[in-house]
From TrEMBL:
Gene designation per UniProt: LOC108498231
One example of a Gene Ontology biological process annotation: methylation
Name of the molecule in the record: Protein-lysine methyltransferase METTL21E-like isoform X5
Gene3D superfamilies with a match to the protein in the record: Vaccinia Virus protein VP39 (3.40.50.150)
Coiled-coil regions listed in the entry: 12-39
TM helices/strands, residue ranges: none
Classification via Pfam families: Methyltransf_16
Alphabetic keyword roster: Coiled coil, Methyltransferase, S-adenosyl-L-methionine, Transferase
Keyword presence, Secreted: no
Source superkingdom: Eukaryota
InterPro entries in the cross-refs: Methyltransf_16, SAM-dependent_MTases_sf
A single GO molecular function term of this UniProt record: methyltransferase activity
Length: 253
């Protein structure tokens, strides 16, 4: 049976979309493989458990703890580090003020520091000891500016510890801060408090549950959100966000 012109165009478009999908999957697999090659493990077992990473021209050693979500390097952090390194011209961090929320082991903060930023790495008080250890061992005498490690419990004492009048961050970094926890409202408040009109948020997020989608919807009531990288094989998306017009944006009830 002969195809009509519209049927032929439809099949041709479907073929193009399928080829693009296959090419996208191939590219995704190649980039993910490159990202994962940045991780290495000690050749000899020692008394200290650590993982190694190659970013920003340095070998980075990270001490982890398996008994806490915040003391493990998750794939989203690797994705964000890789992006910072490979897009250092477009997102030049030299002498920029950067804060990482939910810094965990500190890998993202370390890479941002090695790329020249003034970095404030933040997390819960019980994580600060390991965070400070990792940041110091990997940036001392290597970074242009020595990073600061500071407590930040989302939504608590924000104005006291990070006064709007004196705290200005060029970038807010976040990797895998949305997961199965009950503090999403506080997380949104924290983004809102720290973000000025010209602040850029770089946020790597792994989608696991419907809760993540709902948070993204709420996030977009305050911020313009742009997907800048997507890795389907990891179920991770990298976003860039900036505050909406302050006259139009308000926190949802």
């Amino acid at each position: 049976m002969d195809l009509t012109s519209s049927q032929h165009n439809y099949l041709q478009n479907e073929l193009v979309r399928e080829l693009e999908r296959q090419e996208g999957e191939k590219e995704d697999e190649q980039i993910v493989a490159e990202i994962m090659r940045r991780r290495f493990f000690p050749a000899v077992i020692t008394h200290e458990t650590w993982e190694g990473f190659h970013f920003a021209g340095h070998e980075i050693r990270i001490t982890e703890a398996t008994d806490c979500y915040g003391a493990v390097v998750w794939p989203s952090a690797l994705v964000l580090c890789y992006f910072l390194e490979t897009n250092s011209k477009q997102y030049n961090l030299v002498d920029k003020n950067v804060i990482e929320i939910g810094a965990g082991t500190g890998l993202v903060s370390i890479v941002a520091s090695l790329l020249g930023a003034f970095v404030t790495a933040t997390d819960l008080p019980e994580l600060l000891g390991n965070l400070r250890h990792n940041v110091l061992r990997n940036t001392k005498l290597k970074s242009k500016h020595q990073p600061c490690v500071k407590e930040l419990s989302w939504g608590i004492d924000l104005e006291k510890n990070f006064p709007r009048s004196s705290c200005h961050f060029d970038y807010i970094m976040a990797a895998d801060v949305v997961y199965h926890h009950p503090f999403l409202d506080e997380l949104l408040l924290t983004f809102d408090h720290l973000c000025k009109n010209d602040t850029v948020i770089l946020w790597a997020m792994k989608f696991r549950l419907e809760k993540e989608n709902k948070f993204v919807d709420r996030f977009q009531t305050l911020f313009d959100l742009e997907m800048i990288s997507n890795f389907p094989s990891l179920n991770i998306t990298l976003y860039k966000a900036m505050r909406k017009d302050s006259m139009k944006a308000s926190l949802p009830n």
